[in-house]
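Lab channel / #folding
Pinned by the channel admin:
"Please post every new chain as: sequence first, then the C-alpha coordinates as a reply. Keep commentary short and put observations after the output so the thread stays searchable."

First post following the new format, from NK:
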Amino acid sequence: MAVIAAGVYLAFDGGPDASGPGGAGIGPYDEIVLRGARVVGERAGLGKVIALRSAAGSWRDAESSSSGSDQLETGRGDIRISAGDGQVLVRFADDEVAGQTSVPDLGPFAAVVVGTHEVHGDEQTLAVRVSRISPWQLTDRAGASFQGATKEALIFVTKGLPAPRGARQIAAAPEPRAMPQESTPPAEAEPSVWVERTKAAPNIYISRPDPKR
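Reply from TO:
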Protein backbone atom coordinates (compact mmCIF):
# COMPACT_ATOMS: atom_id res chain seq x y z
CA MET A 1 0.00 0.00 0.00
CA ALA A 2 1.47 3.34 -1.09
CA VAL A 3 2.06 5.90 1.62
CA ILE A 4 0.66 9.31 0.67
CA ALA A 5 2.90 12.18 1.72
CA ALA A 6 1.38 14.95 3.78
CA GLY A 7 0.20 18.02 1.91
CA VAL A 8 -2.54 19.13 -0.46
CA TYR A 9 -3.12 17.58 -3.89
CA LEU A 10 -4.90 18.75 -7.03
CA ALA A 11 -6.88 16.39 -9.27
CA PHE A 12 -9.16 16.88 -12.26
CA ASP A 13 -12.60 15.78 -11.18
CA GLY A 14 -13.96 13.04 -13.43
CA GLY A 15 -10.69 12.36 -15.26
CA PRO A 16 -7.16 10.98 -14.89
CA ASP A 17 -4.55 12.99 -13.03
CA ALA A 18 -0.99 13.81 -13.99
CA SER A 19 0.64 11.83 -11.19
CA GLY A 20 0.54 11.05 -7.50
CA PRO A 21 0.73 7.93 -5.36
CA GLY A 22 -2.58 6.20 -4.85
CA GLY A 23 -4.29 8.46 -7.39
CA ALA A 24 -4.15 11.47 -5.05
CA GLY A 25 -3.32 13.81 -7.92
CA ILE A 26 -0.65 16.45 -8.45
CA GLY A 27 1.33 17.17 -5.31
CA PRO A 28 1.90 17.27 -2.45
CA TYR A 29 2.16 21.00 -1.83
CA ASP A 30 2.21 23.11 1.31
CA GLU A 31 -0.64 25.10 -0.19
CA ILE A 32 -2.49 25.44 -3.47
CA VAL A 33 -3.64 28.88 -4.63
CA LEU A 34 -6.37 29.30 -7.23
CA ARG A 35 -6.71 32.75 -8.71
CA GLY A 36 -8.14 33.63 -12.08
CA ALA A 37 -7.24 31.15 -14.81
CA ARG A 38 -4.36 29.40 -13.09
CA VAL A 39 -3.59 27.24 -10.09
CA VAL A 40 -0.25 27.57 -8.30
CA GLY A 41 1.22 24.95 -5.99
CA GLU A 42 3.60 26.26 -3.35
CA ARG A 43 6.23 24.20 -1.58
CA ALA A 44 8.94 25.57 0.73
CA GLY A 45 8.12 29.10 -0.33
CA LEU A 46 8.45 28.40 -4.07
CA GLY A 47 5.42 28.58 -6.36
CA LYS A 48 4.77 26.61 -9.54
CA VAL A 49 1.85 26.79 -11.98
CA ILE A 50 0.26 23.34 -11.98
CA ALA A 51 -3.03 23.86 -13.82
CA LEU A 52 -4.43 26.26 -16.41
CA ARG A 53 -7.95 27.05 -17.53
CA SER A 54 -8.68 27.32 -21.22
CA ALA A 55 -10.89 29.90 -22.89
CA ALA A 56 -13.62 27.25 -23.01
CA GLY A 57 -13.53 26.97 -19.21
CA SER A 58 -11.89 23.54 -18.88
CA TRP A 59 -8.86 22.85 -16.66
CA ARG A 60 -5.77 20.93 -17.74
CA ASP A 61 -2.37 19.96 -16.36
CA ALA A 62 0.09 22.81 -16.94
CA GLU A 63 3.09 20.53 -17.58
CA SER A 64 1.59 18.11 -20.08
CA SER A 65 -0.85 20.48 -21.78
CA SER A 66 -0.22 22.12 -25.13
CA SER A 67 -1.88 24.89 -27.05
CA GLY A 68 -3.58 22.45 -29.45
CA SER A 69 -7.35 22.35 -29.74
CA ASP A 70 -7.41 18.64 -28.92
CA GLN A 71 -6.11 19.41 -25.45
CA LEU A 72 -8.79 22.03 -24.93
CA GLU A 73 -11.52 19.56 -25.77
CA THR A 74 -10.28 16.94 -23.32
CA GLY A 75 -9.98 19.31 -20.37
CA ARG A 76 -12.13 18.95 -17.26
CA GLY A 77 -14.56 21.48 -15.92
CA ASP A 78 -13.92 20.94 -12.20
CA ILE A 79 -10.84 20.51 -10.03
CA ARG A 80 -10.70 18.63 -6.75
CA ILE A 81 -8.44 19.42 -3.79
CA SER A 82 -7.67 16.76 -1.21
CA ALA A 83 -5.06 16.14 1.47
CA GLY A 84 -4.44 12.41 1.20
CA ASP A 85 -5.14 11.00 4.62
CA GLY A 86 -5.62 14.49 6.06
CA GLN A 87 -8.23 17.21 5.72
CA VAL A 88 -8.39 20.45 3.78
CA LEU A 89 -8.94 24.00 4.99
CA VAL A 90 -10.12 26.74 2.62
CA ARG A 91 -8.91 30.32 2.93
CA PHE A 92 -10.14 33.33 0.97
CA ALA A 93 -7.84 36.20 0.07
CA ASP A 94 -7.39 39.18 -2.23
CA ASP A 95 -5.98 42.68 -1.96
CA GLU A 96 -5.78 43.10 1.79
CA VAL A 97 -6.57 46.42 3.37
CA ALA A 98 -4.87 47.43 6.59
CA GLY A 99 -7.19 46.86 9.51
CA GLN A 100 -9.57 44.64 7.54
CA THR A 101 -10.84 41.54 9.34
CA SER A 102 -9.74 38.32 7.63
CA VAL A 103 -12.27 35.67 6.73
CA PRO A 104 -11.85 32.66 9.05
CA ASP A 105 -10.70 29.36 7.57
CA LEU A 106 -13.52 27.11 6.40
CA GLY A 107 -13.35 23.40 7.10
CA PRO A 108 -11.88 20.96 7.60
CA PHE A 109 -13.15 18.99 4.59
CA ALA A 110 -12.23 15.62 3.17
CA ALA A 111 -12.22 17.19 -0.31
CA VAL A 112 -13.08 20.49 -1.96
CA VAL A 113 -14.43 20.68 -5.52
CA VAL A 114 -14.13 23.92 -7.48
CA GLY A 115 -16.51 24.27 -10.41
CA THR A 116 -17.14 27.12 -12.79
CA HIS A 117 -19.68 28.85 -10.56
CA GLU A 118 -19.50 27.10 -7.16
CA VAL A 119 -17.06 25.86 -4.54
CA HIS A 120 -18.16 22.81 -2.54
CA GLY A 121 -16.57 21.41 0.59
CA ASP A 122 -18.02 17.97 1.38
CA GLU A 123 -21.22 18.91 -0.50
CA GLN A 124 -21.51 22.25 1.34
CA THR A 125 -21.59 25.35 -0.87
CA LEU A 126 -18.82 27.68 0.31
CA ALA A 127 -18.81 30.34 -2.42
CA VAL A 128 -20.49 31.19 -5.72
CA ARG A 129 -19.86 33.51 -8.67
CA VAL A 130 -21.80 34.59 -11.74
CA SER A 131 -19.01 34.08 -14.31
CA ARG A 132 -15.46 32.80 -14.67
CA ILE A 133 -14.01 36.30 -14.39
CA SER A 134 -16.11 37.36 -11.41
CA PRO A 135 -14.82 37.24 -7.80
CA TRP A 136 -16.07 34.57 -5.43
CA GLN A 137 -18.97 35.56 -3.18
CA LEU A 138 -19.05 33.86 0.21
CA THR A 139 -22.16 32.06 1.40
CA ASP A 140 -23.55 31.87 4.93
CA ARG A 141 -21.09 29.01 5.55
CA ALA A 142 -18.51 31.72 6.31
CA GLY A 143 -20.76 33.25 8.97
CA ALA A 144 -23.34 36.01 8.93
CA SER A 145 -20.73 38.78 9.15
CA PHE A 146 -18.95 37.58 6.00
CA GLN A 147 -21.90 36.39 3.94
CA GLY A 148 -21.90 38.17 0.59
CA ALA A 149 -18.27 39.32 0.85
CA THR A 150 -16.25 38.93 -2.36
CA LYS A 151 -12.74 37.50 -2.64
CA GLU A 152 -10.45 36.96 -5.62
CA ALA A 153 -8.43 33.91 -4.58
CA LEU A 154 -8.89 30.53 -2.92
CA ILE A 155 -6.11 29.01 -0.84
CA PHE A 156 -6.12 25.35 0.16
CA VAL A 157 -3.96 24.03 3.00
CA THR A 158 -3.81 20.94 5.16
CA LYS A 159 -5.43 21.13 8.57
CA GLY A 160 -2.84 21.97 11.18
CA LEU A 161 -0.76 24.25 8.95
CA PRO A 162 -0.30 27.62 10.69
CA ALA A 163 -1.63 30.69 8.94
CA PRO A 164 1.02 32.87 7.26
CA ARG A 165 2.31 35.78 9.28
CA GLY A 166 0.61 39.02 8.42
CA ALA A 167 -2.07 39.50 5.82
CA ARG A 168 -1.56 37.65 2.54
CA GLN A 169 -1.47 39.99 -0.40
CA ILE A 170 -2.36 38.25 -3.66
CA ALA A 171 -2.30 41.31 -5.78
CA ALA A 172 -0.99 44.57 -4.54
CA ALA A 173 -3.41 47.40 -5.09
CA PRO A 174 -1.87 50.28 -7.05
CA GLU A 175 -1.02 53.21 -4.88
CA PRO A 176 -2.78 56.44 -5.83
CA ARG A 177 -0.46 58.81 -7.57
CA ALA A 178 0.15 62.08 -5.84
CA MET A 179 -1.10 65.01 -7.84
CA PRO A 180 1.80 67.22 -8.90
CA GLN A 181 1.85 70.38 -6.92
CA GLU A 182 1.57 73.53 -8.94
CA SER A 183 4.76 75.43 -8.76
CA THR A 184 4.32 78.74 -7.02
CA PRO A 185 5.52 81.53 -9.26
CA PRO A 186 8.25 83.57 -7.69
CA ALA A 187 7.05 86.72 -6.07
CA GLU A 188 7.35 89.63 -8.40
CA ALA A 189 9.97 92.05 -7.30
CA GLU A 190 8.68 95.47 -6.43
CA PRO A 191 9.35 97.98 -9.17
CA SER A 192 12.46 99.98 -8.67
CA VAL A 193 11.84 103.53 -7.51
CA TRP A 194 14.24 106.12 -8.69
CA VAL A 195 14.79 108.68 -6.04
CA GLU A 196 16.04 111.92 -7.37
CA ARG A 197 18.77 113.16 -5.21
CA THR A 198 18.77 116.76 -4.06
CA LYS A 199 21.13 118.61 -6.24
CA ALA A 200 23.33 120.86 -4.20
CA ALA A 201 24.10 124.19 -5.77
CA PRO A 202 27.68 124.20 -6.93
CA ASN A 203 29.97 126.53 -5.14
CA ILE A 204 31.32 128.77 -7.90
CA TYR A 205 34.24 130.98 -6.93
CA ILE A 206 34.46 134.14 -8.99
CA SER A 207 37.74 135.87 -8.92
CA ARG A 208 37.18 139.60 -8.79
CA PRO A 209 39.94 141.99 -9.80
CA ASP A 210 41.51 144.02 -7.07
CA PRO A 211 40.55 147.71 -7.15
CA LYS A 212 43.11 149.92 -8.69
CA ARG A 213 45.32 151.39 -6.29
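NK: The longest strand covers residues 46-53.
TO: also worth noting, The two ends are 158 Å apart (CA to CA).
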